[in-house]
Amino acid sequence: MASVCSENNDVSAIFFDLDNTLIQTRKCDTRTCNKFIEMLEQEYGLPKEMAVESAASFLRAFRARPDDDSFAFEEWPAHLWRNSLPKNYRHLAKTLSTEWLKYRYQNLTLSNDVIHLLESLREDYLLGLITNGPSRAQWYKIDRLGLRKYFDCVLVSGDLPWEKPDQHIFLEACKLLNVEPRTCIMVGDRLDTDIKGGKKAELGGTIWVPLQKEEQSSILPDFTIDKVTELPEVLSNSPKLKRCARTSTVC
Prior knowledge:
Layout: E1 13-16, H1 25-42, H2 48-64, H3 75-84, H4 93-107, H5 112-121, E2 126-131, H6 135-144, E3 153-156, H7 167-177, E4 184-188, H8 191-200, E5 205-208, E6 223-224, H9 232-235
Parallel strand pairs: 1-2, 1-4, 2-3, 4-5, 5-6
Helix pairs in contact: 1-2, 1-4, 2-3, 3-4
Keywords: Hydrolase, Magnesium
Cofactor: Mg(2+)
GO molecular function: N-acylneuraminate-9-phosphatase activity
């Protein structure tokens, strides 16, 4: 397999997307939702169809808007549960919100293989995390999973004037790491944000880790891999630049 390299420049930094790239957010949330269908039916007495519809309605709303700063952090999922449950079961919303956060983060973890990947790559490359999403929700996730220690720079779009695919969020990461865009690569699951944005910023390479291989788009990544742990296969022929000694930066 060919390796990622741009105009004879070695790769100096690797930028990663978070959700559905390093952690399987969608799969984990679906698994948690299925747990809640059982809970609603068996523990709280909702009829099967009602339990399925309530849990599915909550998950749709949560995926569309995982946080709202006008609510306390724990109150937002409770609000979504109140809107998703039948009227005579809405008193369960606060309990379900607490349980949702508990079970979600039992499922939402970094795998040992991904931890090994990040630790190994960080010996030879600068690593950046660039994630779209509400600031509070994404930082809660980042801190709950202990991600800061793996990265030299962390950018959350909710803190900034831009989000992927705006090229400026990628260029900001390059600036913070003091690297040229042409020596950086972007790894992510979305063509319309991660890959498109990496190309707009004229990064040295883009690597797609698709959720759905059949996805059709005019946006073409430089490489496609089945899972993020296959990344070394497209780096293996590129001479590595040893990381400069510097203090880790979290922005």
